[in-house]
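FAQ
Q: What does a multi-component entry look like?
A: The components come first, one per line:
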Amino acid sequence: MTGTKLVERQSGIALWRQIADRMRLSINNGEFDGTGMMPPEKTLAERFGVNRHTVRSALAALADEGIVRPLQGIGTRIERRDRLSFPIARRTRFSQGLGGQARELDGKLIGWREQTAGQTVAEGLAITPDSRCICLETLHSADGRPVSRATNYFPADRFAAIAEEYRTHRSITKALAASGVADYVRRSTEISAAHAGGEDLADLRLSPGAILLVTIAVNVDMDGVPIQYARTRFAADRVKFTVDT
Amino acid sequence: MTGTKLVERQSGIALWRQIADRMRLSINNGEFDGTGMMPPEKTLAERFGVNRHTVRSALAALADEGIVRPLQGIGTRIERRDRLSFPIARRTRFSQGLGGQARELDGKLIGWREQTAGQTVAEGLAITPDSRCICLETLHSADGRPVSRATNYFPADRFAAIAEEYRTHRSITKALAASGVADYVRRSTEISAAHAGGEDLADLRLSPGAILLVTIAVNVDMDGVPIQYARTRFAADRVKFTVDT
DNA sequence: TATAGTTATCTAGATTAATAGACATTTGGA
DNA sequence: TCCAAATGTCTATTAATCTAGATAACTATA
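Then the predicted structure of the entire assembly, as C-alpha cells:
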C-alpha cells in the first residue's frame, strides 16, 4: 500500500498492459466509485509516470473489454465493475449461491466427446484409467458475460446421455437430475491460478495475459460414489471465491 | 488441450515472457519428468513457432529464477519443480499441513505498525473502524524460498505485544499462544488472483507479470471472537490450495 | 580422435512499444 | 459566446523486442 512501485519497465509486459490490469483491478475494487468516472488521462499518466499515449493504450484495452467508455470532451466513464462471488462448500453449484449478483445465469455446451479416462481423471472418479467417460466442454455466462469455462468428466456407463441432457437443461445439476442423480455433494476442490491461453482466451473474451482461477473439483452422489470430475477455469477479474468453514 | 494456440503476438506481453510462463507451468506440472532436461532450444523454438533467440530469453528468465540451469554442450537441466499444496479448512495454519512437502518453514517479520482499523478490517474483526489495531507484514518461506507475504491485523487492546512475539516465535500460532490464545479456528477465507506488483514482487522474488493467489482470512478464538484479519499473497507458481469439504 | 548435438555469442535488420509535442474536436459552464 | 478541460489524431524519434544467420565453445559417444 505504501511506496507502491507502479509499473515495471523491461519486464516483458508492455506498460500499457500493466496499467490496464491495474486499472481493471482498481475499478473492480470500487476505487473510483465517487464519480463513476476515471481520472483524466493526463492525471493517470502522471500517476503512473508514463506518457499520456501509453495510458490511452491501456484505456483503449479496457474500452475494448467494455469496462470503460471514453466520452470526448467529458472524460472516461466506468461502465462495469463487478466480481462475482462464488461460495465453495459441500453443496457448491454454479447456478446457485449467486443470489442477486446476476440477473441471469447460463451454461452452454460447446463440445463433447467420449474417451478413456486417463490417469488423473480416473483417480478423481475412482475408476480404472482405461474406463470410458463422457467429456463435456461447457461455457458459463452471467448476464450474457462469459465467466468460466469447464471440462467435465462423467463415467460413460452411468451417464451415457449427459451431453444431450446438458444441452437441454443448460445446467449440470439439472442434467444429473435427469440422469437419475437426485442430489450430490462436492467432495474436494483444488484451486490454482494460471495465465489464460488458447481457447479459454477466446471463449472467455479475455485479453492475452489475463489470469485464470482454476478449480479441480470432484462431486459424489449421496452414496459417496464419484460422478463428476471437473476442471473449471474462471476469469479472475470477474470472480472471487469464498470458503466458509 | 487440442489446437492450443501457443503464443499471442501484439498482446502487450512479450513472447519470451509468455513462453517463460508456459514453460514454468509445464515444469511444475512435471511434463518433462522423463529426463529431467528441457527439450533443446531448437525444438522449443519450433514448437512455439518463434526464433531460437526468443526461446533463449525465456530460458534465461527461468534460469534467473533458479528453475533451470543451462549446461553448455549438454542441454538445459530442470533444477526445481514444486508447487506446495495448502489445505484450506477450519484449522488452517501456515506452518502445518505441509507434511513432507518442505523440510523447513519460516515466518519473518518485515515490518509492523499500529493504526486505526478502517472500514474493511473493522468488518472482519467485528470492531469499530476507529479502533486501534496492530498490523504485521510477514514473509513466509519454505526451504529458504519465499512462498507468501501477508498483512495481518490484530486488535491492539488484546494483542499489544504481538509483533515482538511474532519476531521471537516466527509463527502466528505460537505468537497467539504467547498472547493467551490457546487455540483458534478459521472462520472465512476468500480467494482471488491478481498480478504481482510493488513490494510483493521484490519480497517474493517474482518476475514481473507473475501471478498472486490472494486470500483474505478471518480467524476467531474458541469463543467465536475475531482475533486476526489477514490478507496473504501467495506466489501462484509455487502453491495450490486444496479445499476438502 | 572425429563427429553430432548442444549451448554461447555476435552482427544486422525488421517490427513493436513508448515518448514527445502539436493541434483538432467535443462538452459543460462562466 | 467564450473558455477551460477533456478526449481524438497526427508526426517524429527513441528504446525494446523479435527475427535471421553465422560461428564459437563445449560435451558425450562412437
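Q: Is there any commentary attached?
A: Sometimes. For this entry: Confidence is low (pLDDT under 50) at residues 1-5 of chain B.
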